[in-house]
Design brief:
About 35% of the residues lie in helices and about 25% in strands. The protein is α+β, with helices and mostly antiparallel strands. The strands form 5 sheets. Strands 1, 2, 6, 7, 8, 9 and 20 form a 7-stranded mixed sheet that branches. A hairpin with a 4-residue loop joins strand 18 and strand 19 (about 375).
Length: about 400
Amino acid sequence: MTVFDYDAIIVGAGAAGLMAAIHAAERGRKVLLLEKGKKPGVKILMSGGTRCNITHDCDARGIVEAFGTNGKFLHSALAAIGPREIVTLFNNEGVATKVEDTGKVFPVSDRAVDVLEALMKRLARSGATLALTEPVKDIDPHPEGGFRVSTVTRVLTAERVLVTTGGKSYPGCGTTGDGYAIAMKFGHTIVPTRPALVPLTVQPAWVGELRGITIPDVNLKVIPEQGKALSQRRGSVLFAHFGLTGPAPLDVSRAVSGHAKPSSLILEADFLPLETEQAFDEFLRAESLASGKKQLAVILAEKLPRRLADQLLVLCGMAVDRKAAALAKPDRLALVAAAKRLRLPLRGTLGFEKAEVTAGGVSLDEVDSRTMQSKRAPGLYFAGEVLDLDGWIGGYNFQSAWSTGWLAGKQL
């Protein structure tokens, strides 16, 4: 009988890897967690503007919905540990949490470092071994079963191996797609990767002139040259020097990065999603009659930021200082269209460098969702962002990592 160095070796000490190592070691397994970087959990520290959006305040169905057609893969993982249980886990480790208006769950301290420290303390208690600055060079099947894991300094054996190397987003964190080569070596298909939750770049130069303006509620659609919208989301939008960022642009970005010709796409913005076109038209008509001496921009500024109001007037061919009096129907309809259906030709996205997650990855058809085990190589497991899973902004992707890592840890 083969005597292995470890029962399980986990490659990558991010959210999924840490959770898997904790769960496996707490079950009495001899676990080694390998991390190529100098620190574990670097992406945890960076996330949510260094606040770490731990999860979303919803049930398992809410998490599944955030991942679209691939969401059903998460049912077993979420049954093993869902959003409520994750909050309880961190609370029990001394991290008090809060729910913001958007449904995002953060530590009360607003410190991502508190989240990571809680995981590290639990990891230490679990008995798992963490090895830093030890990149994995290769993984091979062991002739007598199990695996041989070659790092830059040694060759180790393990009965089981879990790959939690992340995707290609924020490569500065060390997530450079290493896990895909391992997966392919064992016969796995890699769904083409692309940036997701990434800011959008636009063609019109005037967008950059509005940088710094935030509009809390905008409905965005990504529209191709022909056919129906590829993606649609409502949320906050921030104008930036390159284009648009914030929750709504980030959520629709995978449709842009996944398109063969992003510069052919149109981003349609409704800056007043709570108001019908008819209601806004009536508002403009009534105000032009009642407050004719006011500047039209001042009236628009009751609904929109002033700088955006000025820009919409320019786009409609009207003077910025135009008075509201005698606003003819064609002019009203032009302003309604600009506020409710503004069409912005896109360039693309800021790419993997600024992407929060990776779309694409190890094909879910080749991984058993009940265990996270490879259908191609028994004893090999995958969890976290290395899989073809990417969800909306708001803690969904962390929940996927915690849950898939925890479920894998139950099997290792």
